[in-house]
Amino acid sequence: MELVSLRNVGFTYAYGDKPALNDVSLTIEPGLLYGVVGLNASGKSTLCSVVRGIIPHFHHGELTGEVKIKGRDLLEWDPAELSKSIGYVFQNPFTQISGVKDTVFEEIALGLENLGVDREEMIDRVTTVVRELGLEALIRKNPNELSGGQRQKVAFASIIAMDADFIIIDEPTSQLDPDASEAVFGIIRKLKERGKSIILVEHKIDLMAEYADRIIVMKAGRVVMEGPAREVLVSDELSQAGVPYPEVTELAFALANAGKPLRSVPITRAEARELVSARIKEAPHAHSAL
Amino acid sequence: MSTPIIDELDQEFIDSFRSPASAGNRIRDLNPISFAVIMVACAVAAVTLPGPWGPAAICLIYVAVSIAAGVSKAFLPAYGKLFAVVGLILFVLRAAFLPGEHVLLRLGPIAISAEGIAQGLDFALVVMALCGAMTLFFTVTPMKNLMLALELRGVTPRATYVILASFQAITDLGKNTKVVMDAQKSRGIETEGGMVGRVTAFVPILAPVFLAAMSQTEERALALDARAFNSRSRHSYLVSLQPVGAAEIALVCAVAACAVLSIVGAAFIWN
């Protein structure tokens, strides 16, 4: 059964003068990682809010069309039930700290307390997430005194610990350095391997190419393309939406324009390495092969 | 080649959640509700015992309790300031303006009488005993322990969150104000100097600071919702409080009984 389906969905915020979402039709299948890309204000976060039920349960406005989550109309869902079923990591790390816990360890456990998880299980789950995200040095610290990047990791850890089957992650690496971003994506890969369904909003298109099964491209509140990552990341629609291609894809296009196309267009570094290695081996003079 | 430093997991800290939270002091380990009852009983006794010795004794008890609880470094300076400011003002006002037969000193319209001094002392000590109960309670009891104790007695998590978050909001507002003031300073706006200069710099930033705080409140509510805060299932707790033993119950009952006796005394004996 499809996890989420949207049919001709539009949404205008209560005090907005134009729709933030316009005629969006999508199906989210379970067990896949969907990447959402698009320029700022293209409707990515609004789409996530609709899928999570924050719209219309929290943010009011005019919602049109049909939204079904696990086959049930969005309006029939109890918001409290939605919060248990769908994890949501928000974009702004500074407002994701509860402000009422003294240590990072307790902060990560907050969601589990709310779910009524037994103390021993809570400790085990929080400890596991702390290890996975490399937060060992932070567990005694006051969450209100962390940097933006540290808060982002703690907020991410808090949602991961809750172990929802479906997780929406809105720009989890916006405050993180490259190493920390890779670590977060490593966790996302593990979540995917565990069969979680994930919607990930992210500007780092190279990482998206590595991890996403399918990509949703948004522009001005509309979904301009949705499909397998390989198809979308080499498509014209991506650049028309103002989203850059992955670095290696750009390189392949540049080579094609120079009359030396690779055998196929890579979207990940591993693919590019393979294709370029093959080209070098085939070429009699390696330095002129490219 | 350098190897990455992997931080060790602080297992001792994690294991501390497996047993009831302890501050390593019997007074600070009292259940917050028990300690609240004790403090209320002390406040009642301060009001009902004959002054000035009754409330003065209660104030001294606070000092002794704070030393025994190991919080005297925090409590005594705060309490001392209260005495020096609030207590002194109340005493002086009463002593100076309450009429009495035995005038000790006359300064224009002000006549300081023996009765005024006695009543001023009584009143100031009673108020200080009431303030002391509050100050000592919040010095000894961590707010989160109090909220946990209240939740365990049926107060909704939403209510306790609002209280805790309100205290945190005050800290956050202060931090945000400093950030905006620093930003103003970096743009060359004078934020220091005389009182007029400071007020002129401070007033315009109030609106953005408060508006930002309101906007953050909405986002924080959403973040809490993402942590299943509105879940209707019974909440569990990572931290547990020390169990309330027979000795603690006996102590609370004894102190409460003293308060009741002081009320009886005030009603039938010394008033």
UniProtKB/TrEMBL annotation, chain A:
SMART domains: AAA. The keyword Magnesium does not apply. GO terms for molecular function: ATP binding. Residues 4-245 form the ABC transporter domain. The keyword Cytoplasm does not apply. It comes from the Bacteria. It holds the Pfam family ABC_tran. Keywords: ATP-binding, Nucleotide-binding, Transport. Coiled coil: none annotated. Belongs to the ABC transporter superfamily. This is ABC transporter ATP-binding protein.
TrEMBL record, chain B:
Keywords: Cell membrane, Membrane, Transmembrane, Transmembrane helix. It is a multi-pass membrane protein. The keyword Repressor does not apply. The chain crosses the membrane at residues 30-47, 53-71, 78-97, 117-140, 195-214, 249-270. It is found in: Membrane. Its main location: membrane. InterPro entries: ABC/ECF_trnsptr_transmembrane, ECF_transporter_component. The keyword Transferase does not apply. This is Energy-coupling factor transporter transmembrane protein EcfT.
